[in-house]
Amino acid sequence: MTDPRIKKLAEILVDYSTGVKKGENVYLLTNSFEGWPLVKEVYKLIILRGAYPYPHIGLAPHDPFGKDYIFMKYASEEQLKHLSRITLEEAKKMDVYIRIGADTNTKELSNIDPNRIALRDVTTKLILDERIEHTRWVTTRYPTNAFAGDAEMFQEEFEDFVFGACLVDWQAESKKQDRIKKIFDQGSIVRIVGKDTDLSFSILGRLGIKCDGHHNMPDGEVYYAPIENSAEGKISYTYPAIEEGREVSEITLVFKEGEVVEARALKNEKFLKAMLDTDEGAKRIGEFGIGTNRKIDRFIKNILFDEKIGGSIHLALGRAYKESGGKNDSAIHWDMIKDLRPQAGGGEIWLDGELVQKDGKWLF
Q1: Which pLDDT value is given to residue 244?
Q2: Which pLDDT band holds residue 211 (cuts at 50, 70, 90)?
Q3: In whole angstroms, what is the distance from residue 276 CA to residue 265 CA?
Q4: What angle is formed at CA 239 by the lines to CA 213 and CA 245, rounded to 5 degrees?
């Protein structure tokens, strides 16, 4: 018998997050059969809504999120630079894009040369841009054993955590985010202060975007695109930044005129610097996000969840989302988290010289 929580999550993805309608083309992607219980329910609902499903299950090397070990290890440089016009044209025909991550090994690409990964990201960027800009899209994770292991949880405990973070009243959450957005939309200079951190940047004229379940599931953040040349100061991140299976820990970045001028990490510093060299935009901040999901109360080494931790902020290096007014462009979008709660050392958010959040709690 299918877990009723899986059916409920499928309904949220199809009816709330993307609003699938009759006659639409829906691209459904998952990277393993471990996610089949959720894929099956989503697939069925797409059909029941009168839409046309285009499922892709397993290896999908031409997809921006389809980098697998075999392709990334053995592909020639020519193959890494090959953009599939077939996949691009298919993306252009889609109305909706739903991705269900179901990793069986989250460290699969740990030993792949980061320059190969960066090259592949640059190559497939056109496909990613097409989806972000021209489809209604949502991405989620199915609670696999690999994800549970990373989270250091028993499988059933992890399932409870995942569904608890996803199956919330997203309309009520949206109203809560309205309050945060209203305050920050009227502001200019944001300052983040904490352990080994004092970083300022401008969001003047940039409007916040509420993340209330329409693109990520789970969701729970309000984000802005900082003015591209405004970041000044230093930030040390609380948790490892994980990209393509690599954990880059104890990251410290120094910004001057909006650009990273110094980057340090205790582990995988070489990978960090390789990602910063991906392209011109990789050294600038594309996103400032404020975590609002109080159901996500711990770091589990999965950025879809971790960046939503209530009482945290995150900054993404690279691509800015155009709907936020950001102009920074890059093949990467790499979120890094600063936890401002007391258990992580505490911290503050200042807006135009006024303290608005202390130790993860709002003061307004």
Answers
A1: 82
A2: very high
A3: 13
A4: 80
CATH no. for 4-166: 3.40.1830.10
CB atoms within 10 A of CB 22: 8
Beta strands in the chain (DSSP E): 25-30, 52-57, 96-101, 136-141, 189-194, 197-202, 209-211, 216-217, 221-224, 232-236, 241-243, 246-248, 252-256, 259-264, 285-291, 312-318, 333-339, 347-351, 354-358, 361-362
CB of 301 closer than 8 Å to CB of 151: yes
Percent share of the chain, pLDDT over 70:
100
CB atoms within 10 A of CB 23: 9
By the 10 Å C-beta count (0-12 exposed, 13-18 middle, 19+ buried), 194 is classed as buried
Tell the residue number behind the tokens 């004092």, with chain if given: 198
Strands 136-141 and 96-101 turn out to be parallel
User: In three state form, how does the secondary structure of 59-103 look?
Assistant: CCCCCCCCCCHHHHHHCCHHHHCCCCHHHHHHHHHCCEEEEEECC
**Average pLDDT across the chain, whole number:** 96
Domain boundaries along the sequence of the chain: 4-166, 170-362
Convert 91-122 to b/e letters by CB count within 10 Å (16 or more is b).
Answer: beebbbbbbbbbbeebebbeebebebbbbbbb
The helix, strand and coil proportions of the chain, stated in percent and rounded to the nearest 5, come to: 35, 30, 35
Give the C-alpha separation, 151 to 302, whole Å.
8
> pLDDT of 132-147, one tens digit each?
999 999 999 999 999 9
CA distances to 178, 212, 229, 293 from 185, in Å = 10, 17, 19, 20
